[in-house]
Specification:
By secondary structure, the protein is mainly α. The chain has eight helices and no strands.
Length: about 140
């Protein structure tokens, strides 16, 4: 895969920092086929089409590798960000991304960023449940 882990600096304008959050990843046909083979069809099966699956994977990779935020993704290109976010949480919980990383379907730089993203999400989940538990205990 030829994608850089982070966007390059635009020498003419020097706007790498500003654009780093706005550049999304789009797998080419060869990369998409390799990704599908690595995961197998059950991971991708859902009510939508293959085009929806591919849009979701591109969106999730863009966010997890640090290229943009969920809300930065253009809806016309990637679909509703909330739906993609929720689907990504389901994939994280089911270990789909971990399988993709272990299979070698993703570049090592992306694999590291996905692992870091998963760790941050787990930490946030633990903090949320801890705060909820504290609020419930205070009500008693």
């Amino acid at each position: 895969m030829e994608h850089d882990p982070m966007p390059r600096d635009d020498a003419a304008t020097g706007t790498a920092a500003a654009n780093a959050r706005r550049q999304a990843i789009a797998l080419d046909d060869r990369e998409w086929e390799a990704f599908k083979r690595a995961l197998g069809e059950p991971a991708l099966v859902r009510a939508g089409s293959e085009r929806d699956d591919r849009r979701f994977v591109d969106a999730a990779l863009s966010v997890m590798t640090g290229h943009c935020y969920w809300t930065d993704l253009p809806a016309q290109d990637y679909g509703n960000w909330v739906s993609n976010y929720r689907r990504n949480r389901r994939w994280m919980a089911r270990g789909v991304w971990q399988r993709a990383v272990r299979s070698g379907a993703l570049p090592d730089a992306w694999a590291q960023r996905i692992a870091e993203y998963a760790q941050r999400q787990d930490q946030q989940r633990v903090r949320r449940s801890s705060r909820k538990r504290q609020r419930l205990l205070m009500q008693e």
